[in-house]
Design brief:
The complex is a heterodimer of chains A (about 110) and B (about 120).
Chain A: E1 5-7, E2 10-13, E3 19-24, E4 31-37, E5 44-50, E6 53-57, E7 64-68, E8 74-78, E9 87-94, E10 103-104, E11 108-112
Parallel strand pairs in A: 2-11
Antiparallel strand pairs in A: 1-3, 3-8, 4-5, 4-9, 5-6, 7-8, 9-10, 9-11
Chain B: E1 4-7, E2 10-14, E3 20-25, E4 33-38, E5 45-50, E6 56-59, E7 62-67, E8 72-77, E9 86-92, E10 104-105, E11 109-114
Parallel strand pairs in B: 2-11
Antiparallel strand pairs in B: 1-3, 3-8, 4-5, 4-9, 6-7, 7-8, 9-10, 9-11
The chains are: A mainly beta (about 110), B mainly beta (about 120).
Amino acid sequence: AAGVIQSPRHLIKEKRETATLKCYPIPRHDTVYWYQQGPGQDPQFLISFYEKMQSDKGSIPDRFSAQQFSDYHSELNMSSLELGDSALYFCASSLDALRGTQYFGPGTRLLVL
Amino acid sequence: QQQVKQSPQSLIVQKGGIPIINCAYENTAFDYFPWYQQFPGKGPALLIAIRPDVSEKKEGRFTISFNKSAKQFSLHIMDSQPGDSATYFCAASDAGGTSYGKLTFGQGTILTVHP
């Protein structure tokens, strides 16, 4: 079965640089979620999109923005990167947001030097 | 403020044992409670989930027990195997509300199953 695809899998950036993370949801899934997981931490919700519209927003810094495109893939744009942004970034997708069943991608490991 | 509290932080059992991981939640609007398994450097994988209209759900070796009045739920792993060694997260969402199903996670439990 097709799974959530994330790219790149690993990313190394310098402070103050920008980064773009991409997420391709499971086919026919209409909702995408982004989570950030620091070392030894639980995943923290950043932002979600339903049918290409932002549906909810969590603890996402103003330096970050995201969108969902017409083909349902999503991109998380991160600017003015800080050391503290180093983390695993997961995308999850859901067929029906109201049912809450989310399937996670393999994640992008971001390291900011 | 952690809306979903998970315990223990770590757990060591012998092969064949039955580890039990507990979670408690505060928000009575939560109506969907999944458990995820995560291996190092990998994404969380959905194990089993329950909704508050049932008190127990079993899938293979995994069982969720749910106590709505106490706002608690737990995961039992029957006949645990070394391959079950991973971090387990409970989570909760207000799937029927305006949050469009965002998950709030517990702090995680590192399970080690010795051969």
